[in-house]
Design a protein that fits this description.
single chain; about 500 residues; mainly alpha; two-stranded antiparallel ribbon
Length: about 500
């Protein structure tokens, strides 16, 4: 995150800067002694590439300006409008006079941008787990002030006015935000160092502290750094980077040599390139003691300082006239010494204390959240176990029903018996359904015995009750009755 402080944004193409550079101002002729300076070879004229401003709507911003620049009327008005009028929105009113083709394209660009923002809103909602919540896009689009969300279909004067003002405000606030980011980086670095020391024993801690002090002294031991934008600093660039004699230093020639895109202005990127030699005195990426994030912060400090001293109209550009005026000031000829970052700590003790308290509060909040999440996890696990148990019970019940279904037997067909014939018995007839086992005994079918077995059983029952068992045991007269019954047809 911290390495993106510089790479995230090349500020030179803010809306106001973009508008000026689109004017294609001719470069001021270079005035130099051709007997001492070799004339550079002429190169084909190239259109300066648009540099990313770092704004989240950078692409939309550049596309709008690109199409506005194609309209001849708008270009003419732009030539005759000063920066203050642009900031106040006077240029935006000229949108009513641009061609129909340009207006149609601007309408299309706005619709695409609104759709992009809606997609971002939806994606953010999905990440936060709100898939089932209805999205009020109109309410959420209010946060994007650089377009009129109430009219998502056409690009109007209000849209251009909003775009200009938003870009100006956002880029002005970016300086402050970048400083805050670097301050947090430095405080976090110190916090991590102190936390590491707590994990060491006394001897290891002493050696670590000695090593830290040694690295600090080694980093501070560097050649003198020239005051950014001073005569000495620019002469050093003139001599070492341009290969020219410092005695022949000429501010106008220097300006044109380093106005790399030939637009007649030093933008912020071109200014920062002038400080490379000074930064190389302090920072070396191969040295343990040198932090490259700090190097980029030092570069931006130098650029801000020069802008504050030279950019008189505060348009974030240095014109040739502004540059020449600055070279005649005392600060240019006799500058004060430049204090580098190691001489100016990025944060105070009070800020460090508040930062530590903030980290402690964050850690406490995270711990509470972790406890809450663990409770939720335990509850989900308990519910899962209950569901698993219910699933097993249900499965057992289903298996039991299937088993009962497979054991169920159809009742035997009805058999008609004639005379004393005994129907044939099947083995399956003796099998009872489980439900039948629970029925009263009198309803159970009685097994059929053979005639001999049946007669024997009757005799046993008669004997137990003292009754005659055979015809011979009956009194006279009964024997004949019995015999008569046997003789009946």
């Amino acid at each position: 995150m911290w390495f993106s402080i510089h790479n995230k944004m090349c500020w030179s193409r803010a809306l106001l800067i973009l508008l000026v550079q689109l004017l294609s101002v001719e470069a001021v002729p270079i005035s130099m002694d051709k007997t001492k300076v070799k004339e550079p070879e002429k190169k084909p004229e190239e259109i300066p590439a648009s540099v990313d401003t770092g704004l989240h709507y950078d692409r939309y911003l550049r596309e709008v300006i690109d199409f506005l620049e194609k309209d001849q009327h708008f270009r003419e008005k732009l030539h005759n409008t000063d920066m203050e009028d642009i900031k106040q929105g006077k240029l935006a009113k000229e949108l009513d006079f641009v061609s129909h083709h340009v207006r149609t394209k601007l309408d299309e660009l706005k619709r695409q941008e609104v759709n992009r923002l809606r997609t971002l809103i939806k994606a953010k909602q999905d990440l936060e787990g709100g898939n089932d919540i209805a999205v009020d896009h109109q309410a959420l689009l209010k946060q994007f002030e650089y377009l009129n969300h109430m009219n998502p279909h056409t690009f109007e004067v209000d849209d251009l006015d909003r775009l200009i003002k938003s870009a100006t405000k956002d880029l002005e606030n970016y300086d402050k935000e970048r400083h805050e980011e670097f301050k947090k980086y430095e405080m976090m670095k110190e916090h991590d160092r102190q936390e590491h020391l707590k994990t060491l024993d006394e001897d290891e801690r002493k050696r670590e502290e000695e090593h830290y002090e040694e690295m600090r002294k080694k980093h501070a031991d560097h050649p003198k750094v020239n005051h950014p934008g001073s005569q000495n600093q620019l002469k050093e660039v003139w001599e070492e980077a341009d290969g020219l004699d410092p005695e022949d230093f000429d501010p106008k020639t220097f300006f044109n040599l380093h106005d790399t895109n030939g637009d007649g202005f030093f933008d912020e990127q071109e200014l920062e390139a002038l400080f490379t030699k000074e930064l190389e005195k302090i920072y070396d990426p191969t040295n343990e003691e040198d932090d490259m994030v700090e190097m980029e912060e030092e570069r931006l400090r130098m650029r801000e300082h020069v802008m504050n001293e030279v950019d008189s109209n505060k348009d974030r550009l240095v014109s040739l006239d502004e540059f020449l005026i600055a070279t005649k000031k005392k600060e240019f000829l006799e500058p004060d010494s430049w204090e580098t970052l190691e001489q100016n700590q990025a944060y105070t003790d009070e800020e460090m204390r508040e930062f530590e308290e903030h980290l402690a509060q964050q850690e406490q909040d995270l711990n509470l959240k972790a406890v809450d999440l663990q409770k939720q996890r335990d509850e989900l696990q308990r519910q899962q176990e209950q569901l698993n148990a219910q699933k097993i019970e249900l499965q057992q019940a289903v298996e039991h029903m299937e088993r009962l279904k497979s054991q169920k037997v159809e009742p035997p067909p009805e058999v008609h018996v004639e005379g004393n014939a005994i129907p044939e018995m099947h083995a399956v007839d003796n099998q009872l359904h489980p439900d039948q086992e629970a029925q009263p005994q009198e309803h159970q079918p009685v097994p059929q015995d053979t005639p001999q077995e049946h007669s024997n059983q009757q005799n046993q029952d008669l004997a137990q009750h003292g009754l005659p068992q055979t015809h011979q045991d009956l009194p006279p007269g009964h024997q004949e009755a019995i015999q008569g019954q046997h003789n009946l047809p």
